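Predicting holo structure, 5'-deoxyadenosine bound.
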Amino acid sequence: FSRNRTNKGDFVDVRSPLFCVGGQEKPMRMEEKIKAGTLNAADWLQILRCSEWDDILRQTADQLRQEVYGKDVYLRGLIEYTNFCKNNCYYCGIRCGNTKAVRYRLSKEEILACCEEGYTLGFRTFVLQGGEDPASTDAWVCSVVSAIRERFPDCAVTLSIGEKKKSSYQAYYNAGARRYLLRHETANPEHYRHLHPAELSLENRKRCLYDLKEIGYQVGSGFMVGSPGQTLSHLVEDLQFLQDLQPDMIGIGPYIAQKETPFAGHSNGTLALTLRLVSLLRILFPYALIPATTALGTIHPQGRELGLQAGANVVMPNLSPTEVRKDYLLYDNKICTGDESAQCRHCLERRMASVGYQVVTSRGDSLNI
Ligand code: 5AD
Ligand code: FES
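Done. Tokens:
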């Protein structure tokens, strides 16, 4: 088999996932394509394979983000209002099959109290996230959304509550929700089946995303990096799917094993590949709202700061009551779950300032609309 020399002077098998094209000409051409934003799917694969273009990717992404959004970082207050879930996704800690999970659900009044505190702290977007909890009926969700909109008319409400009928999405929209987060998780049907039980399908997931778009939501999608069974070509399919969907928001984070799931003990996604993808996403979607996620902050102490430097422009401090945070454990070692994290808002503001960014309290609507 053929062997090639890398820049570092060692030899690698070209079939290995670590293979890099070295030499004089190819990297230059790739560099130009990165700067010009003319990358194709074959280039993405090449880029994802190795660290060769990381610096230029990061610089290009940072410059693009700077042109569109300056040094502003948008704040979204995350309220994890229920960890009951009827689904049994193999990677997720709040799957119904996890009998060890301590379940909780916040009342409408408790959610409003979180918003009240968040409003005082300067939040103008509230993200209601939860498992697919059968107790959260459409009527209840609508009443929570309209209560928030009534009490805080200058705030946006984002929902992140899973797969629903189109009529339900429409009802939430009519109640005043304008944004919806639903990661597609993986755009490859086989890989989707590897991560989920048979009753869940990629087809329905995609149906939900297109329904949400049709209704007029600002839509967020995304995927985990390094999830069990994921290959680099799956990631290329993820990017292709996102190009088709054209979401306003794109959330990605490293997969992190959770001990009470069938994938316990599986290796986690890496910081390097996640950051590389954040930069690539910024280059492919200059206008997107891309968070530096909690999962990124969990695998590295400066993960979120590095995420911003790689092209992200959103942070989502936790606004959930501190007593319940330790129970919303999608993955192990999640940060911001202890008492010391009562005010993630200030913590994040300091962290962002340390790398030259400023959090802004405006609603931060998608510039795509
Ligand atoms: N590791 C990382 N991210 C996870 N999520 C769920 N479980 C895990 C895990 N073990 C992500 C999914 C989901 C989002 C709310 O959290 O991508 O969409
Ligand atoms: Fe939550 Fe720092 S962001 S403690």
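The chain is about 40% helix and 15% strand.
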